[in-house]
Design brief:
This protein is α/β, with parallel strands linked by helices. It contains one helix and twelve strands. Strand 1 (32-35) and strand 2 (38-42) form a beta hairpin. The radius of gyration is 22 Å and the shape is globular.
Length: 153
């Protein structure tokens, strides 16, 4: 009888352990999450991109500082990209601080950010994709690093 009870208890313990593990959420490539008001997309096991909120473009406003690193579900990610359309149509975006961890600015990343006036690109940037700053009618200057590899029209 004691062996049967122990067997049932062991089976229940294993079953509950499996249920607990299966209920744990693990982030996968392409998943998005938001930390401190900025939405990110997972690119790899250690790299993420700043992206738009997913529901609508134009949701960022004010002065934004993109961090070089973000922790999510116990995993530390390097922020390496500003995704296509990430800040598109953010008419109330006034300023952006981009960390040295960013390598790539996606196409239309700042499209129609009509209140954005100045931007300094870090030396880490290697690629600026198509129309990244198109429609930024208030933009007075962009300081582009000397060693940039590609600027698409």
């Amino acid at each position: 009888m004691k062996k049967q009870i122990l067997g049932v208890l062991l089976a229940l313990t294993l079953l509950l352990g499996c249920v607990t593990l299966s209920g744990t959420a693990f982030a996968a490539m392409g998943d998005t999450f938001t930390v401190d008001g900025i939405t990110y997309k997972i690119l790899s096991t250690d790299s993420i991109a700043v992206t738009h909120s997913g529901t609508a473009l134009g949701t960022y406003s004010g002065n934004i500082t993109i961090p070089a690193n973000v922790e999510y579900q116990g995993v530390a990610y390097n922020v390496t990209k500003i995704d296509s359309d990430a800040f598109a149509k953010c008419a109330n975006l006034a300023g952006i601080n981009i960390p040295d961890s960013i390598l790539d600015i996606g196409s239309y990343a700042f499209f129609n950010c009509t209140n954005l006036t100045d931007i300094n690109l870090p030396n880490s940037i290697t690629t600026i994709q198509e129309s990244a700053f198109r429609g930024c009618s208030s933009l007075r200057s962009i300081i582009i690093p000397e060693h940039i590899l590609s600027i698409q029209p």
